[in-house]
Design brief:
By secondary structure, the protein is α+β, with helices and mostly antiparallel strands. It has a single domain, classed as Nuclear Transport Factor 2, Chain: A (Roll). 14% of the residues are buried.
Amino acid sequence: MQLLIINNMKKYILILCSVMLGLASANAQTKTEKEVTAKVNAIHKAIFLDKDSASLNKLLAKEITYGHSGAKITNRQQTLEDVGGNKSVYTDIEIKDIKLVINGNTVVSRYVLTGTETKEDGKAVHLNLGIMMVWIKEKGEWKMMARQANKLS
């Protein structure tokens, strides 16, 4: 009788451990998810905080299409010039709800960006943007190939 109870307890412990391991691995980010999430944050740091064209240049694919929330679309050179020449001050920039769809060497990221943009004339504008980016592997590195932002209500 004691042997039967011990065997049943072992079974339950094994099942419990398996379930816990499954839950832990379901919440763990893959290497690709970690890398792309870090790149998303690096892009926003380069654009909104540092206005660093050199850092941004390293994150962009050779052929990029960059869609702004005001419907303007720029190529690689225009995007880098816009960042370097941007006189706005951005505060309280926050990225929320990042969702990634991974398909081989392509990743689509979607998320919400909020914050405040104070333009050169002093006018402050609240930002509430839905942003989608397409990432590709270029020479072993994740690079942003496309971006589109739209204003959310």
